[in-house]
Amino acid sequence: MKSCRACRLDKCLLEGMDPTMVEAEQSPAQRQFIQSLYKRREFLQQQQQQLQKQNEKEMEIKNEKDTEIKKEKNNNENENGTSDEINEENQTFCQTPDPILSNEFCRSETVPVTGLLHTMPQFVMLEPTNQANFTAVPLSEFPVSFGSSTINSQIVTNIPNNSFSPLFIYYQNNNPLFQFSEEEFLMVSAFVASNSAISGLSDAGRLALQHLSEHYTNTLMNHLRTNHGNMAATLRYAELARQAESLLFSTRLQPTEFYQRRI
């Protein structure tokens, strides 16, 4: 600081000049002058800190608004059957309505099971080669691979565009006298789809699927009791349980054109 001339420039004071280091004769006037510089420096530093806090607060408010707008946009597009695409590190990802803030996708309630019944049920009649009667319901598209990226300093599990497999649940009715209602078929299908005996699941994911399976089972029983009474509901539930053994849950990687044409 030997070269400092105590010129009182705010920029110099703010960027590191310490007035107490000014070498000068200690006359009363000079001491008063140095003290005034020191107070000015404190004022400028406080002013800068306040301005920085204000800018950070404004940026935080802006980020919250942007997040709300994006979330609303995703929800609207999800209702319309579309998806939101983001470009992150030169890769395009298909983002779920609620990003999965975890490295283990199976801990999220959004995949792979609970989203199955979010789409409108559409029945598709297939023409099998063995003359049996098959029915397939495209409940959703099942993600078969995942990737992670950093968005706004958070690790987000993303699903690449080309990593979706159309999910079909196939049903062969071995008893022509017994017919599923649409609600029964969907609930039994969900029960089968939430089977926790899937390789690669974490303990948390397996427990989540077990809870889902219990939920669908209880929902089905309540539905049967409401529509058929307690005694008839028990008999129908037993028959549905036997029919559930004929349900085959699988993912089939089909060309997009074929999948769109089928539904």
TrEMBL record:
Keywords: Receptor, Transcription, Transcription regulation. Residues 81-90 have a biased composition (Polar residues). Residues 54-76 have a biased composition (Basic and acidic residues). The keyword Transcription applies. InterPro entries: C.elegans_NHRs, NHR-like_dom_sf. It comes from the Eukaryota. This is Nuclear receptor domain-containing protein. It comes from Heterodera trifolii.
